[in-house]
Amino acid sequence: MPTVAQCGQHAKTLALQFRLGITTQPALELADLAGQLITLFASATPQQIAQLQQLLTAVLQCQQNRDWSGLADYLEYELQELLAGSSA
């Protein structure tokens, strides 16, 4: 199972790729990252799980709308904040 740090770094890498207009491979990897996050948050507090659910819903909405900049923002900022709170 990936660590919090590994998931955070992977999310930052994907965010950079989305910002550069590279979308196909990162979109596929995003599904893997979501699965890893769900596994990672399995023992989190109900509040953290709800926050992850909201974040993943927003990420999916950005992906559906092809809002790559918004998606990158969620991965680079919002997710990092959530991960920092989960490891505290």
From TrEMBL:
Listed name of the protein: Uncharacterized protein
Record organism: Rheinheimera pacifica
